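#struct-help
A.M.: can someone run this one for me? Single chain, 142 residues.
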Amino acid sequence: MTDEPQQPTEEELRAALEEQMKRITVKDVLLQTVITLINVSARKLGLAGEEGEKDLEQARQGIEGVRALVPLLPAEEQTAVREPLSQLQMVYAREAGAGPEAGEGRPEETSAPDAKPPTSDPPTSDPDRAQARSKIWTPPGT
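D.P.: on it. Structure tokens below:
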């Protein structure tokens, strides 16, 4: 007789999974998906300190995924998700550049979200501002 723990049988594993599926809710899955997308997007923006992981297209897709799922969450969870989503959007806008007026799109040149490009032109008009804002994601209804 050995004291090694026995591996569960396939039937036992299937029964355990079935029991978990009975308890889980769609809200749980949505919230976990949103949290995962926020974390992956942050990594793809280079916020985890790994420059090799940086991928702006992946970050954009993750942010869009979060934006699509937020309205499906209960109000309390929506409130909790809006701040990290806003932070991701600001970092993405800085990294990707908010249009041709953002210079060469280098982060050090566009570090402030409201930084103005060094020109002698008058302040941007409403159409220019709308074009720039269309490149920055904001949660619906804000």
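A.M.: thanks! Residues 16-107+121-133 form one domain.
D.P.: also worth noting: Residues 99-125, 128-142 have pLDDT under 50 and may be disordered.
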